[in-house]
Amino acid sequence: MRAPNIVTAPNVDPEENLDRMRKGELYYAFVPDLIAERKRCALACSEFNKATDVSRRDQLEMLNEVLQNDEPLPRRHFGMSEEGDDAQLADLPIVEVPVKMDYGYNVKLGKGVYVNSNSTWIDTCEISVGERTLIGPNCSFYSGTHPLDPTIRNGTRGPESGKPITIGEDCWLGGNSIILPGVTIGKGSTVGAGSVVTKDVPPYHCVAGNPARIIRKIEVPGADDSGGEEVGGDEAEAEASGAGAGAGDNKGEGIQVLAGEDAPTV
């Protein structure tokens, strides 16, 4: 029996292929260097996920290995207690285990970011999360995509592509949210639990559902809520006033939508 061909893509220049991936252009994922990068990240994630009883500093060092972040941590001075060291690391991201990433180096987490357990990051292109953003459990970020034409898609032998995901500062993503390629979520916005975000979310808005629709605007004195394509349009604005926002609505059946000021659950 002939051995299966593991490397399924044609011969490509590795640097050019990686550059095309990061730019969101068509590239080949099943080439030796990218397979090796995904294996490296999988091993780093595995070590990070197993280290549940380590110091905050050790956890951050392992997270930096996943992210390939070479920025040094604040130095722990001689005689400093672990509590004192934790205090100087307090503004750095907190990522609960387990976590799954494809490459790691395309994920950028700002200061004060909190990521709850079981997050998935398909970081074909950059996925950036702004400072002080809170992410609930089981959230997924899919920056990778494929050609719609199956003759071009061609399984593992064909090319794929991606689009960056940008999440602004001070956002709140409820549990089980899914963010799709090319989406920008504006500063200060909230995504209801179980939502699938397919389009940009303007700053200081609440969205929920599958696909996510605007539920309401968040009134923050002095906040700039300009920019971003509004999700849903006029029909979504009707939902924001109360119509069609129930759990049995056929636009979001089975989805927990915003109810009051405290949803979504993180």
UniProtKB/TrEMBL annotation:
Residues 18-72 form the Maltose/galactoside acetyltransferase domain. InterPro entries: Hexapep, Hexapep_transf_CS, Hexapeptide_acetyltransf, Mac_dom, Trimer_LpxA-like_sf. One of its GO terms (molecular function) is acetyltransferase activity. Residues 222-266 are annotated as: Disordered. Keywords: Transferase. Pfam families: Hexapep_2, Mac. Residues 226-238 have a biased composition (Acidic residues). Belongs to the transferase hexapeptide repeat family. This is Maltose/galactoside acetyltransferase domain-containing protein. It comes from Cytospora paraplurivora. The lineage of its organism: Eukaryota, Fungi, Dikarya, Ascomycota, Pezizomycotina.
